């Protein structure tokens, strides 16, 4: 489903930046300037041959100073629901797509005295725009990047050239690891921490920072793990009486949108809580894949995040 406020864009460039990793540039079809964004923002891209049946969030990896268009960097994942596969295999220069306006759930805190950025793999993408903005503003920061060095790592040369001594590389395939305890313990008061990458890196970084007494408001992270597939099920909307089938590779949110329903949503990655809907009944097991609900809330089963979570069973009834 294409949303009424989507922006129609044309793909103007596609570039291989590493193994299974491509950069895509989008420019508005009408020739105007797209909305402004700040480092850490993302857009949602409508993908698939079936009228944008898949809507995936992608971090903007271009410069916030670029007023001509947006850039995203996409890793072709082996367990793709169809989004990264569609972009890598079917999208061509000149093709038109629909995107959302930028949303920023991973913003820079410009009141910080210092910024410590930790990236792993494709998690480097938000830091491309963030380091550009921090450097332009003369902010105190450094970037630590864990990557696979056996092949070309995305943007390593660009970051090394731009950041100099503020850039630190770790080759995970050579056994190099970020010494989180030493790094986090050695930061001055007023430092803010930002981390993006594999779940294990995010979890380890947050756990270490917390154990060392970092205030929670100084710890920022972004997760965009794709929702796993599952068995089809039916969702019934109690207020409208509408019944919708959720397919194996669809999210609950996508199925509702496909049926012409527009429930609330924002990050589409299970992190912000915007898409939470009340559950009236569930004939089966609720599978919670979000990062928002507490364990207690999950166990209670009173709500579900429609963007990533689903039902293992026959029918789910929502108060919507």
Would you mind describing this structure in some detail?
The protein is α/β, with parallel strands linked by helices and 320 residues long. The protein has 3 domains: 7-99, Elongation Factor Tu (Ef-tu), domain 3, CATH 2.40.30.10; 114-222, Nucleotide-binding domain of ferredoxin-NADP reductase (FNR) module (Rossmann fold, 3-Layer(aba) Sandwich); 233-318, Beta-grasp domain (Ubiquitin-like (UB roll), Roll), CATH 3.10.20. It contains 7 helices and 16 strands. The chain has a 6-stranded antiparallel sheet with strand order 4-3-6-1-2-5, with helices on one face. A 5-stranded parallel sheet has the order 9-8-7-10-11, sandwiched between helices. The longest helix is centred in the middle third of the chain and has 13 residues, at 199-211. The protein starts with 6 loop residues before the first strand and ends with a strand.
């Amino acid at each position: 489903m294409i949303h009424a406020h989507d922006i129609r864009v044309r793909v103007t460039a596609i570039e291989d930046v590493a193994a299974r990793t491509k950069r895509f540039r989008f420019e508005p079809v009408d020739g105007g300037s797209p909305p402004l964004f700040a480092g850490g923002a993302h857009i949602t891209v409508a993908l698939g041959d079936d009228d944008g049946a898949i809507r995936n969030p992608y971090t903007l990896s271009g410069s916030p100073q670029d007023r001509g268009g947006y850039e995203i960097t996409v890793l072709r994942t082996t367990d793709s629901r169809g989004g990264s596969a569609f972009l890598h295999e079917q999208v061509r220069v000149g093709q038109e797509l629909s995107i959302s306006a930028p949303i920023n759930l991973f913003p820079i805190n410009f009141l910080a005295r210092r910024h410590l950025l930790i990236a792993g793999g494709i998690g480097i993408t938000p830091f491309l725009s963030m380091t550009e903005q921090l450097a332009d503003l003369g902010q105190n920061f450094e970037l630590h990047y864990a990557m696979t060095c056996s092949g070309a790592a995305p943007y390593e040369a660009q970051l090394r050239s731009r950041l100099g001594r503020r850039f630190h590389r770790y080759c995970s395939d050579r056994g190099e690891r970020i010494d989180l305890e030493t790094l986090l313990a050695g930061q001055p008061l007023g430092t803010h921490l930002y981390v993006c990458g594999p779940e294990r890196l995010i979890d380890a970084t947050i756990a270490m920072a917390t154990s060392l007494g970092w205030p929670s408001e100084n710890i920022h992270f972004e997760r965009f793990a794709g929702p796993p597939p599952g068995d089809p099920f039916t969702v019934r909307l109690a207020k409208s009486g509408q019944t919708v089938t959720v397919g194996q590779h669809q999210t609950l949110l996508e199925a509702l949108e496909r049926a012409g329903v527009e429930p609330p949503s924002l990050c589409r990655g299970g992190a912000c809580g915007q898409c939470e809907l009340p559950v009236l009944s569930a004939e089966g097991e609720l599978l919670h894949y979000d990062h928002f609900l507490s364990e207690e809330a999950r166990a209670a089963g009173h709500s579900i995040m429609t963007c990533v979570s689903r039902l293992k069973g026959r029918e789910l009834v929502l108060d919507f």
